[in-house]
Design a protein that fits this description.
38% helix; 8-stranded parallel β-barrel; 12% strand; TIM Barrel; alpha/beta
């Protein structure tokens, strides 16, 4: 697939984006920094030229691993990072950007995103006008090329857009999680805002590797995923996976590749997906070679609705209640 224009900006991105959330989890078991760095390099070599990270991922650790992987080939890569909810005041935004630039060993960011709306996670409420003023200053100074948001509603994007050009939004979106299709996606289509999906494989459920009797280890955040912690939802996930398998077999691809191929053919949508090693990164890149016909897209859509038609309108992926 050809690179895609990022909203109204001049930035062009790959339809599949390398997510590096896992690179910020240096204390997690089975996370190998060296393998992740190799995975990032393999992703770029395979055509995934866009890399997404955030200052909060390991408090800069993820950004540093990205730099380790791509500093020597910066001109071949599109870099996206995010400012967290505790750094949304004017001076704090500028300082956070400078830290990210240092961590990433670059003098500019292709896209700088507000990670969560102001007031999220219990942090201070900051007027969006103040935050956008800082982002516009960074753009004027050449430190960032485009401005984006993450976890914003259509109404929140509309408010932010009063003070500057918003080119992207990053929401949870997958075949099994489609809350954005109600309001956010139509708004983005109308206003030429690119959608960069995260949890594009529904946190691994669309890989098909979690069977009906799977039990997540203590502390695994997926145990709080609303597709898993609700037994009826999880049963529907298993039914849908069973129906998707023959389609993946016919397309000579994995379940994950099929789900990603469907996703990047949705309006305005490119997909962020992580990889722990080079093999996974290359497999993700292969998705960009898969073409789905209108009838195949419709069939996959219908199967996905086995899960999504029974969900409520709450856009949150997680149920943190005890």
């Amino acid at each position: 697939m050809e690179p895609r224009k990022l909203g109204q900006s001049k930035v062009r991105i790959s339809p599949i984006i390398m997510g590096t959330w896992q690179a910020g989890k240096k204390n997690w078991a089975n996370i190998d920094d060296a393998e992740i760095v190799k995975g990032i390099r393999a992703a770029v070599d395979a055509g995934i030229t866009t890399i997404d990270t955030a200052e909060i991922y390991g408090n800069g650790y993820s950004e540093q691993r990205v730099a380790e992987a791509i500093a020597a080939i910066r001109d071949q890569v599109v870099l996206l990072t995010k400012v967290f909810s505790n750094h949304l005041k004017y001076d704090a935004v500028l300082e956070a950007c400078d830290r990210s630039l240092k961590n990433l060993q670059t003098d500019y960011l292709d896209l700088y995103q507000i990670h969560w709306p102001t007031g999220s996670w219990g942090y201070e409420l900051v007027p969006i006008e103040e935050t956008m003023s800082a982002l516009n200053k960074l753009k004027e100074d050449g430190k960032i090329r485009a401005i984006g948001v993450s976890n914003f509603s259509a109404a929140q994007i509309a408010e932010a857009s009063k003070y500057g050009q918003i080119d992207t939004v990053q929401p949870p979106y997958s075949l099994f999680w489609r809350a954005i299709e109600k309001d956010l996606q139509p708004y983005c289509v109308e206003n030429n805002i690119a959608i960069l999906s995260y949890s594009s494989l529904a946190q691994g459920f669309l890989t098909g590797k979690f069977g009906a009797d799977h039990q997540f280890a203590e502390g695994d955040h997926r145990s709080k995923n609303r597709l898993y912690c609700n037994p009826e939802n999880y049963a529907r996930v298993q039914t849908a996976i069973k129906k998707l398998r023959p389609i993946a077999t016919a397309k000579n691809c994995s379940l994950a590749q099929l789900a990603l191929a469907w996703l990047i053919q949705q309006p305005q949508t490119s997909a962020i997906v992580g990889a722990r090693n080079a093999e996974q990164a290359i497999a993700n890149a292969e998705t960009m070679k898969i073409t789905l016909s209108e009838s195949e897209l419709a069939e996959i859509d219908c199967i996905g609705r086995i899960v999504t038609d029974e969900l409520d309108d709450d856009p949150s992926l997680w149920d943190w209640a005890d």
